[in-house]
Design a protein that fits this description.
Strand content: 15-25%
Largest sheet: 5 strands, mixed
Mean pLDDT: 96
Number of strands: 28
Number of helices: 27
Shape: globular
Radius of gyration: 28 Å
Helix content: 40-55%
Bound molecules: O-methyl-L-tyrosine, zinc ion
Strand order of the largest sheet: 15-16-17-19-18
Oligomer: single chain
Length: 838
């Protein structure tokens, strides 16, 4: 380590501080090649303090670590026989003593020495400088990364891997070597990731004018990884579940996810690596922006409307739930005990929505001018969210002072809408009022800037013209005060309001509409995102009435209105599949002040059955038609994906009808499909029924795929999600299978975390679900605290449960807390428990 000390701390005689970890065994410390005596350094609270009278010097430390016993998937660890790393956010200090903070940028040279037979694949960041055989049957490689980077972007791989290679010529004519590594035998499954990488490189040049900067780009797929992927400079490391695909083992969704995650990690090369975060409070600087970039990439390559609906749905169900929970935090948090707990839907997804508002308000060219400024000013530095906004102010020419409230305030803003139309003067008046509920540590909020895209629709669904002084060219009004009024003149007939089109702002629109008006809105809405939300809201409202006992059952007009799109001439089948999607349980419960899971589930099941019986003829007709049209070899292409989406959604409902012939149809599809999307979809839908045909299909599935790790782990999730009384016993049976590995992040998440989302059997009145889950958390916390902490966040809705359930959960959380108290790295677990119970 070359240390150049700053004047002030040197003159004060302060020691140099290097972060470490209790598992590091320090062997030697030397300065400029000379070992220093023990009195010149000390270790306190895992940090190494070195004193020297030299201002600039080369510091060497030698440590011993044991990656084989490291099951945390942080630092340098072993995944089967492969050595691999995960340094972000604070893993480097588990490998050696180092100033392990994102604003310390260094040029890294890495030398790896290993047995040449056992570890022929030796990789690190940057360019390969030399590769030599040395005595003792060993190999020595040297990698050099010319770009200064924080320690969290360092990576190292040592193993015996297979690979595929290709190349990409950048727009300035540089040829880049591309490699994707995986376990030997899986090479063929890597081509989709490779093609996704090439598409990402091209797209970043075309849309953001950003070119790759090294001679080589590598992706390595590993089975044990806590997240999807990691953007280490020039050497991305990925979870194999989002890298390897084939028609026989991956669903259409997985194909899509692989492409999006490859893109996300690649895009970090500029937003995250070339410009890094000054400290971890700034995490959304790189994550919010990179999510926005990967979402734009997917939207440019696929159906923009469908991508937007899926992203909006994620925010509305998962991020809104977090924003309403005791773990709510601003996208730029103010304080934390452990940054590991802040890789959240808020920092990532809401962070991206916040940047998207700038894009929506000021348009692509102003936004790109802001991005250009950002790189001009800050390339090669570690910066803050304020710096990004400063660049955006310069690029767009707009003042973003008030906009910054989105960075500092947590909670989902509400916008209350009231409107009136004066037939005589032909003026439509819109009154908006914004508010934001209190969140931990923030009682009162300042008004946000809320951009709302608006259209006024006629009874026939045509867009009405109007004159409004306060609306922008792209049809956006900006709500800046607590209360504001907007008037629209020359409106020829009484309009139906379409507000927050395309979900321009991540807010909840509160509009007091009668059922009749909601149905009308659903029929005329021409913005796909709003059309989707209108359907979701309509159904959620009705579900809530039934859950709260205000209504007995669904009326026919709801069932009819919700299914109307099945009879329409909409050409995009993916859209229809989404329009008839059920609201998720989290969406429904997030609007309840007290949750009764049985009632929620019961009402959803009852809706599905009614819907299926009412529309069964049409559903069956669509199923058969699409099935016929898809009768050829599987391809992951837009039009086929859309057909499969609708076909499988329709099959889901047909099975919900509980009619034997339709359950058999599902069984037949599960057994005979020529692609994994159809097999898995049919099996998932059957899993909802208590038919014996599910047991048969499930058994066959297990026998067929038991040796395919990527597939069998999906089956674990399917079993854990079943709405069946036997679910806990079934899970315990899976635990005994030799295919289930209880220290592998993917396996434990797919089995146990999925179970924690099983509304009824996880929340069973007798507490058996909570106890089982807590037992697992205690076990997992011993070796992988990150995963354990994520599991505990599943109790986010704790305060909305009845008092007996609260008491049960509290007891389990206290039990977990007591058992982890003396463990290393327990602070991140305790932080989540304390938040949840606060
Ligand atoms: N930076 C990665 C996410 C990531 C974060 C932490 C990890 O290990 C604890 C792994 C990956 C991304 O945004 O893709
Ligand atoms: Zn990221």
């Amino acid at each position: 380590l070359e240390i150049n000390r700053d004047e002030e701390s040197f003159l004060k005689g302060e020691p140099v501080l290097l972060n470490g970890d209790e598992d590091l065994k320090l062997l030697v410390v030397s300065i400029d090649g000379v070992e220093i005596p023990t009195k010149s350094f000390k270790i306190e609270e895992n940090s190494l303090y070195v004193t020297s009278d030299k201002k600039n010097f080369v510091l060497q430390t030698r440590v011993e670590i044991d990656p084989s016993s490291n099951k945390s998937c942080m630092g340098l660890y072993k995944s089967k026989s492969l050595y691999c790393t995960q340094m972000e956010p604070e893993g480097f200090r588990k490998v050696t003593f180092f100033p392990d903070k994102p604003d310390v940028l260094s040029k890294f040279t890495t030398t790896i020495i290993a047995d040449k037979e056992k570890y022929p694949t030796l990789l690190s960041n940057g360019n390969l400088i030399s590769e030599t055989e040395i005595a003792g049957g060993r190999k020595k490689v040297i990698w050099e990364d010319p770009f200064p980077k924080p320690s969290c972007l360092f990576a190292l791989i040592a193993g015996d891997l297979g690979l595929i290679s290709d190349s990409f010529v950048t727009k300035s004519g540089k040829k880049v070597l591309l490699e994707v590594y995986s376990d030997k035998g899986n090479e063929d499954l890597c081509w989709h990731a490779m093609n996704s990488l090439k598409k990402s490189m091209k797209w970043d040049e075309d849309r953001f004018n950003l070119e790759y900067d090294l001679d080589r780009f590598m992706i390595v797929a590993v089975d044990d990884f806590n997240f999807g992927g990691m953007e280490n400079k020039g050497l991305n490391i990925f979870n194999s579940s989002v890298t390897l695909v084939s028609p026989e083992t991956a669903t259409d969704r997985t194909y899509f996810r692989v492409e999006a995650i490859v893109a996300h990690e690649y895009f970090h090369n500029w937003t995250g690596n070339r410009i890094a975060c000054r400290d971890w409070f700034q995490l959304t600087l790189k994550e919010g922006l990179t999510v926005l970039r990967d979402q734009e990439f997917s939207s440019d390559l696929h159906s923009r409307s469908v991508c937007r609906i899926d992203n909006v749905d994620y925010v509305r169900s998962i991020q809104f739930k977090e924003d309403a929970s005791p773990n709510a935090h601003p996208i730029r948090p103010e304080s934390f005990t452990s940054i590991d707990n802040f890789y959240t839907p808020t920092v990532y997804r809401k962070g991206s929505e916040v940047i998207r508002m700038i894009l929506s308000m000021y348009g692509e060219s102003a936004f790109q001018a802001g991005m250009k400024k950002y790189f001009e000013l800050y390339d090669g530095q570690s910066v803050r969210t304020e710096d990004f906004l400063h660049a955006m102010e310069l690029g767009t020419g707009k003042d973003l002072t008030q906009f910054k409230n989105w960075y500092s305030q947590a909670g989902t803003p509400r916008v209350k809408v009231t409107s009136s139309y004066n037939e005589e003067s032909q003026v439509f008046t819109l009154k908006l009022e914004q508010s934001c509920p209190a969140t931990p540590g923030q009682i009162k909020k300042k008004p946000f800037v809320i951009p709302l895209k608006i259209a006024l629709l006629s009874e026939e669904g045509k867009e009405l013209s109007f004159i409004c002084e306060k609306i922008s060219e792209n049809s956006i009004i900006e709500l800046r005060q607590k209360n504001e009024e907007f008037s629209f003149k020359n409106v020829l007939s009484k309009p139906i309001l379409s507000i927050n089109r395309n979900f321009t702002a991540p807010v909840i629109i509160e509009e007091d509409l009668s059922l009749e008006k909601r149905i009308k809105h659903l029929c005329v809405e021409n913005d796909p995102v709003n059309r989707y939300i209108a359907g979701q809201n309509l159904l959620t409202e009705e579900l809530l009435k039934i859950i709260k006992g205000k209504k007995n059952d669904f009326s026919e007009e709801i069932i009819e209105a919700f299914g109307k799109c099945l009879y329409s001439d909409i050409k995009d089948y993916s859209l229809i599949a989404r329009y008839i999607e059920l609201p998720s349980i989290s969406t429904v419960v997030s609007t309840l002040s007290t949750i009764n899971f049985e009632k929620v589930k019961e009402s959803i099941v009852s809706f599905c059955k009614k819907f299926a019986l009412f529309h069964s003829e049409k559903l069956f007709e669509i199923y058969q038609e699409l099935n016929k049209e898809l009768d050829y070899e599987y391809q992951w292409v837009e039009k086929d994906v859309a057909k499969r989406e609708l076909k499988n959604r329709v099959l889901f409902y047909l099975i919900c009808s509980e009619k034997h012939e339709y359950i058999e149809l599902g069984y037949k599809q599960a057994q005979t499909a020529n692609n994994f999307t159809d097999t898995y979809s049919a099996l998932s839908s059957l899993a909802n029924s208590n038919s014996q045909l599910f047991d048969k299909a499930s058994k066959d599935f297990y026998e067929k795929y038991r040796s395919e790790n990527l597939v069998i782990q999906k089956w674990f999730a399917l079993i854990a999600s079943r709405n069946q009384p036997s679910v806990l016993e079934d899970i315990k049976r899976i635990e005994k299978l030799k295919e289930f590995l209880n220290d592998r992040p993917n396996h434990i998440s797919l089995l146990y975390k999925t179970f924690s989302m099983n509304p009824i059997y996880f929340n069973k009145e007798d507490g058996s679900g909570y106890k089982f889950f807590a037992d697992k958390i205690i076990e997992i916390a011993k070796f992988n605290p990150n995963v354990a902490a994520v599991f505990i966040k599943q109790f986010n809705y704790y305060s909305k449960l009845n008092s007996s359930r609260q008491a049960l959960i509290k007891a389990e959380l206290e039990r977990i807390k007591a058992s982890v108290r003396d463990m290393k790295n327990s602070s991140l677990i305790i932080e989540v428990i304390d938040n949840t119970l606060s």
